[in-house]
Write a structure and sequence with these properties.
single chain, about 160 residues, mainly alpha, about 80% helix, globular, binds zinc ion
Length: about 160
């Protein structure tokens, strides 16, 4: 699932709770809840793990990270967040699982083996039953991102 979507939910959590620690923990937990939703990148991840589609996975992840950074910068620099500090912790918690997966991917560090398995257990849980193509998954994810974006903006304009 896109980091942008995880981050949007993390930001939403950061606006809803007042403690940075709670925002981080909830963001972390919600990462797995969101990954349960079939979102169309399961084939991409599989292709990546097989070694067949490494370039595609890396380009998608790079564009995703850049979009996330730009959106965050816009929201942050325009003072759209009521609790910017808590929002940052919510976002950090919400993208932290994928950061750990990245560390595991690069270092193959043993400590993270179980975490890696748990992450992909959630990620692929509904995959067999509700298989979405990348394009359909993209539409689903973009719709959720836009909805959350409007929701975050609505705090500001009310
Ligand atoms: Zn994930």
């Amino acid at each position: 699932m896109f980091l942008t979507l995880h981050a949007a939910v993390g930001a939403l959590i950061g606006e809803e709770v007042s403690s940075p620690t709670l925002a981080f923990v909830l963001g972390f937990i919600f990462h797995f809840v969101l990954d349960l939703i079939p979102h169309g990148d399961e084939d991409l991840v599989k292709g990546y793990q097989d070694g067949a589609r490494i370039k595609r996975m890396v380009s998608v992840a790079t564009v995703d990270a850049i979009v996330m950074a730009i959106l965050f910068f816009i929201f942050y620099s325009q003072d759209f967040f009521f609790q910017p500090k808590v929002v940052i912790w919510g976002i950090t918690g919400s993208i932290f699982p994928d950061f750990l997966i990245g560390v595991h991917e690069i270092t193959k560090i043993k400590i993270l083996d179980k975490f890696h398995d748990l992450h992909y257990f959630a990620h692929n849980f509904f995959f067999e039953r509700f298989h979405l193509s990348f394009t359909k998954g993209l539409i689903v994810q973009l719709s959720i991102i836009i909805a959350i974006g409007f929701f975050l903006l609505s705090y500001f304009f009310v």
